[in-house]
Amino acid sequence: MKLYELIKTDDEKLRNIEIKGVTCNSAAVGIGFLFVCISGTRVDGHTFAEDALSKGAVAVVCERDLGLKNQIIVDDTHKAYFEISANWFGNPAKKLQLIGVTGTNGKTSVTYMIKKILEKAGHKVGLVGTIQNMIIDKALPSKNTTPDAYELNSLFSLMEKAGCEYVVMEISSHALDQKRICSVEFRTAIFTNLTQDHLDYHITMDNYFDAKLKLFKMSKCAIVNLDDEYAGRILDAVDCKKITYSAKNDAATYTAKDAEYKPDGVKYHMVGYNFINKIVVGTGGKFTVYNSMCAAAAAIELGIPMDVIKTALSEMNGVSGRAEVVKTDRDFTVVIDYAHTPDGLENILSSFREYKDSRLVVLFGCGGDRDKTKRPIMGEIAAKIADFVIVTSDNPRSEEPLSIIEDIMVGVKKHKKPYKVIENRVEAIKFAIANAKKNDIIILAGKGHETYQILNTGTIHLDEREVVTDVLKEL
Fold it and tell me: 286 versus 160: which is more confidently predicted?
């Protein structure tokens, strides 16, 4: 492919250079490559420009004059990298209908629900997300919630070639801020909620919100959770079509009424203008009402018949690590959930707090090298809602696990609830199950779908489902 087909340049000598590959990773540069200098949070790609040329790159794209031969200066290399990658793959996103889901919590569940509904309606669907990427029914590994620009456009290309009509995507705030997704049009952008998370990166909640807002500036339709405090700011800021959903506000386009909650599912009436339908979903928790309403609203906007939506949602039995009930064949319940933010933890605990005859036990930790301010907040939430708190490790990374636990305990000790500190997560799970009482609900929060734990000595295998199964065999 000629360079002029990838990026505009006034340099006549460069225009017709043959490009054999595109990358922003200097280690991946080959003969004939175009190297894009990306300024990251830790590394500035501009410092590798000379190295890239020495390895065979025929041109570099940069944001400042590096005094190098064959340099192309642009205002924003992040945006340029996405557009170059899109051009490299023939702009596949233009041939797909993109549905983007952003928010602190609920993204994964909503994307899977929408995919299920669209497939039930006979459409071929691609999915980009935290747990995995999917091309129809083929699963591919996922490194980030939203891949980098080149990988994302490669996925779009594979999906388009496989016959996908729709792509449902989890869109992270990091990806939006870093322009890993930009210069495309979304059919629908969905907002689930916004609560404290990633402040180690964004620093302030306003910055976090501004990053999320970028998705809605690229969309033809915004679907917004009216019960979230940031909803009004999104609705005021965008000019596209607006649809809202709520579990308590009749002013919303769609409102949930008469909700019934059970550990293994929810029932409610979805009410709109001259519109009422009973929705049944095979996943417990109040958040399931929000997630399923959100997915249903998106599907209605896409023209999917309501009977198809209802059938698809009734067949949903949850997503890995999202309020996932582990089969135990015992007189207590074990639930695995990805809750790793204050709001996420409060949601999962509040949902299961509805069952008054059960003792609610929560086991959780907080990630190392991440927002430290949420640790005592999560500790206080756990002790306020649960009957018994077990504080342990999550992914401590380079931090000392006990130091993280000490931060959490500041919040736990604000409430006079019994607690246990067990640093080793496997031992903590063993303790929880070995001491379970009849009708207990044990929430293992934080790891969710993850099958590993990141320690300061490296990454180890840790699948909580396996741990639970092994412990039950010993009892």
Answer: 160
